[in-house]
Amino acid sequence: MAREILAMGEPMVEFNQTGGPGSRTYLQGFGGDSSNFAIAAARQGASVGYVSALGDDIYGGMLRDLWRQEGVDDAHVRTDAAAFTAVYFVTHDAEGHHFSFFRKGSAASRYAAADLPRDAIAAAKIFHLSGISLAISQNAHDAGFAAIAAARAAGVKVSFDTNLRLKLWPLAQARNAIDAAVSLCDICLPSYDDVAAIYDERDPERLADLLLAKGPGIVALKLGAEGTLLALPSSRVRIAPHPCKPVDATGAGDTFGGAFVACLARGADPVEAARYAAVAAALSTQGYGAVAPIPTAAEVAAARARVAA
Fold first, then answer.
1. Interior CA angle at 131 toward 126 and 134, to 5°?
2. Which of these, 254, 229, 226, 243, lies nearest to 286 by C-alpha position?
3. How many CB atoms lie within 10 A of CB 174?
4. CA dist 206 to 7, 131, 195, Å?
5. pLDDT tens digits along 7-27
6. How far apart are CA 306 and CA 309, in angstroms?
């Protein structure tokens, strides 16, 4: 079955510290940036599928159960009996949240270009991946660019989130790969800190100019507490952050991306899509974990109505 949105990357099982700094209590949840993105899009009503690999283990089974509950099609997620499903831990302190990953050699990192569901990619409206999708291994890097090529050859829009993680690869290597992916995407979803490091530029407006010049028609530059700079070839709009009481920002950028692309998939204007996604992202910070706090379309609509009132 064709899906509006097809996302690719590494899904993970999450253990998120609760109860404040130093707590020994962890809430089991789920993560992986592109999986978070897929669930966020599905909760906004989009038809979504996922491309990856899982180990033949309890965590892989948990992720499949999650996607089926969320309405994310896992038909194109392979089971690799020779590998494991990655996990990570999130701890919190006065400086924010910190991640510890256990992923080297994971099933997703062994996913190869020969494994790609090319017909499913060609049938989608939008194909999504991230810098992490490319960074976890050479296999994953090659598969990601092969998927981008397949999408572009079929006239499918490509969405790309920079998600720079320097624990996964050195800056020079990340800069080359992420710059190449930006040049091949239609919808660019960078975080400010990522592209400031990649392009050695600190001014958001100049970063937007630079990114647009590389080819994408839509750039939604995420500025954290300062909101989002939406850059189109003919206009710029600052999207203010939605008021919220954050306790955990894990996955907020992924929620923004999933909600934004879900809106675009159903034909929304990019400005309206960005305003909607800003509310979804803010709401996602009000609970612990990357997935559990992602709001539904009804919750986003209610929050927007309260602000309007």
1. 90
2. 243
3. 21
4. 29, 21, 11
5. 999 999 999 898 878 889 999
6. 5
